[in-house]
Design goal:
The protein is mainly alpha-helical and 270 residues long. The chain has 2 domains: 142 residues, TerB-like; 66 residues, Helix Hairpins (Orthogonal Bundle), CATH 1.10.287. It contains 13 helices and no strands. The protein is globular and about 55 Å long. The termini are far apart.
């Protein structure tokens, strides 16, 4: 009995020895040893994300996508709105310190892409909400930014209003907080239309921009862009519910834009 057991053990040992010897001579390499290897499948699964993929999946990609939804809602983008969007993209791009230029390109691509897509603002709001759990003030700041962008041409269209209300709901902004922001913007622009936006003297327009009256069109436009960049709402501060928000951001931008439009009207060349 013992001799039979020894023979069995010897056979098993010999088989294992031969198997390992074959492996050492021909180790298995995925994609090399077999025609039906899963190498292509593995490559697809573990394909590295591109920089563009990372930007799109980030909090900043979600923000610029929401901006695009509001910008395209009424079917037009005024010059001041365009300048604000450029500055928002610049602010967000600078969060990617090592790849600012690439981030700027990718964020612009996201904006242009989302401008062409309708009926996905809910999904984008949910996406941004997933990035900002526990950051209620940041959500407030985004709603303020969207209202500022929508109102910058002097009025809030029904389409813009509907999108912003939906976004605020998905961001779980309380009724009290949303109504406060909404009412502040509405009150400001109602006042503007009641006389504050009356045409200003040409000399005052140049004074507001801080340039001489004989400035060239290039200087005027450059100064306008500089001031819009200086006073545009800074979304990345994340303060939220700032009591001076209308005064510090919207009112100043409206004054700058009114002066620029007055000068444009007089020159008819910008």
């Amino acid at each position: 009995m013992e001799s039979i057991l020894l023979v069995v053990v010897a056979v098993v040992f010999y088989y294992l020895y031969k198997s390992f010897q074959d492996y050492w001579k021909n180790p298995y390499v995925p994609g090399k040893n077999s025609d039906d290897s899963p190498s292509d499948f593995v490559e697809d699964i573990y394909k590295p994300e591109t920089f563009g993929d990372k930007v799109r999946a980030s909090e900043y990609g979600a923000i610029i996508a929401l901006v695009a939804k509001v910008a395209q809602a009424d079917g037009k983008v005024c010059e001041l709105e365009g300048e604000l969007i450029d500055n928002i993209i610049e602010d967000l791009a600078r969060e990617h310190i090592r790849s600012v230029d690439e981030a700027r390109i990718e964020l612009r691509a996201i904006f242009e892409h989302e401008k062409m897509i309708k009926d996905n603002s809910d999904a984008l709001a949910i996406e941004f909400a997933s990035h900002t759990r526990g950051e209620y003030k940041k959500r407030i700041k985004v709603v303020e930014l969207l209202l500022n962008l929508a109102y910058v041409d002097g009025m809030l269209s029904p389409q813009e209003e509907e999108i912003i209300i939906d976004i605020a709901a998905y961001l779980e902004i309380t009724n009290d907080d949303f109504n406060k922001i909404y009412d502040d913007f509405k009150a400001f622009f109602t006042k503007e239309h009641q006389g504050t936006r009356a045409e200003i003297p040409l000399s005052e327009a140049y004074h507001r921009l801080g340039i001489p009256e004989d400035s060239s069109p290039e200087v005027i436009k450059s100064r306008y862009r500089e001031l819009v960049k200086k006073y545009h709402p800074d979304i990345l501060q994340g303060k939220g519910l700032d009591a001076n928000f209308i005064e510090s951001a919207t009112k100043k931008l409206q004054e700058i834009n009114a002066a620029y439009e007055r000068i444009k009207q007089s020159l008819n060349t910008l």
